Amino acid sequence: MPDFSIGVDLGGTNLRIAAVSAEGHLLEKVTLGTKLALGRDHVIGEMCDAIQNLSAKYKATGNFLGAGIGLPGLIDLEAGMMRKAVNLPGWENYPARAEIERRLGLPKNGACVVLENDARVAALGEQWLGAARGVENMAVLTLGTGIGGGIVLGGKIWHGMNGMAGEFGHVTIEPDGHPCACGNRGCSEQYASASALLRMAREAIATGHAPALAQAASSDPEFGAKSIYDLALQGDEPARRILQGFGRYLGILLSGLVNILNLEMYVVGGGASSAWDAFAPSMFEELRRRSLVYAATAPADPLKSNSSGSNIERKTIITRAVLGSDAGLYGAARVAMLAG
C-alpha cells in the first residue's frame, strides 16, 4: 500500500473524510452529519476521531502524509485560522489548525494539517484527477448557493496575496444589479448560481406568465435548479429563458476570466452545472461576443471539447467538472501531500 493522506470536506450539512493514496486512489470514505448545534468542539472532535481512525487503519502499509481540511470561508493560511466562516457559526477568527494538530498530535514524522478553502481544494481535485487531469494551469467555478472558485497554476493552488484569490462569485457583472450579502451590488453569484436560478424562477412566477414553474414550485418541496432544468427540457419557454439568461451571465463572468487569465481550461461544477445542456449554448455565444481571447482560441465545437489529446492544444477549453462532490476530498488530500 502506498503513502496516503486524509482529505476532509467540512460543510454546513455534511462532514466527509477520506483516505486517499498518493497515486489518487480512494481508500475509504466516511460521511457524517455536521452537528453544528452541538458546537464547534463537538464537530472538531468528530473530525479528528475519523482522521485518527482512518490513519491508524492504513498507516501499517503506508506513510501518513497529513490531513488537508477544506472549509467554507476565508482562511488565514499562514496563521491557520478561520477568519470568516460561511455556514459555520462560532468559527470566526478560530485557530482551527492549531486545535486539530493538538488533537491529532501533529506535526510529526513530516505529517501536518493544512487548512484550505473548500472551493480551492475542489479546483485542485479536478486538476489532479478530474476534468483537467494533466492540465497545469486551470480554474474551477462551482455554481452552488453562491459561486466558489479556485485557480491552479503549475499544479498548485494560486492563493494571491493572502489566500483570497479566486472569489469569482463577487465579480461585478451588473453595476446597479441585485444587492449581494458581501455588500456589493450585481455580483455574479446573484445571476449565475443555484440561488440566482431560484430567484429568477420566483420572479417569473410573480408575473403570472409561468404556470408550469408555479405548479412545480408549489408541489415540489425540493424545487430547485434541477426542477427548472427538467421543465426546460420539456419545452417550457419561461424555464428555457431563465436558463438562457443564466448562461449569458455566466458567459459574461467567464469572458472576463478568459481575458485576464488566458488559462488552458475552465471547469464548471456545483449543483447548478447539472443544467449544462440548457445554459451552455448561450454561455458560449456570450463568450465569443465578449472575449477577444476566447474568440481567437475557441475550439471548433466547444460543446464537444474535452481535455484529452490535441484538443486542448492552444485552445481555451470550458467544460463540466467530473468528480462531483468528491472533488473537494481529493483536493484536500492533495494539499496535504504537496505540503509534506
Structure commentary:
With 340 residues, this protein is α/β, with parallel strands linked by helices. 38% of the residues lie in helices and 21% in strands. The strands form three sheets. The protein has a five-stranded mixed sheet. The protein has a five-stranded mixed sheet with strand order 10-9-8-11-12, with helices on one face. Helix 3 (118-129) crosses helix 10.
What is the topology?
Blueprint (H helix, E strand, L loop, with lengths): L3 E7 L3 E8 L4 E8 L6 H19 L5 E8 L1 E4 L4 E5 L10 H9 L7 E6 H12 L8 E6 L3 E7 L2 E2 L36 H13 L4 H9 L5 H9 L3 H25 L3 E5 L6 H15 L1 H6 L19 E4 L6 H13 L1
Parallel strand pairs: 1-4, 4-7, 8-11, 11-12
Antiparallel strand pairs: 1-2, 2-3, 5-6, 8-9, 9-10
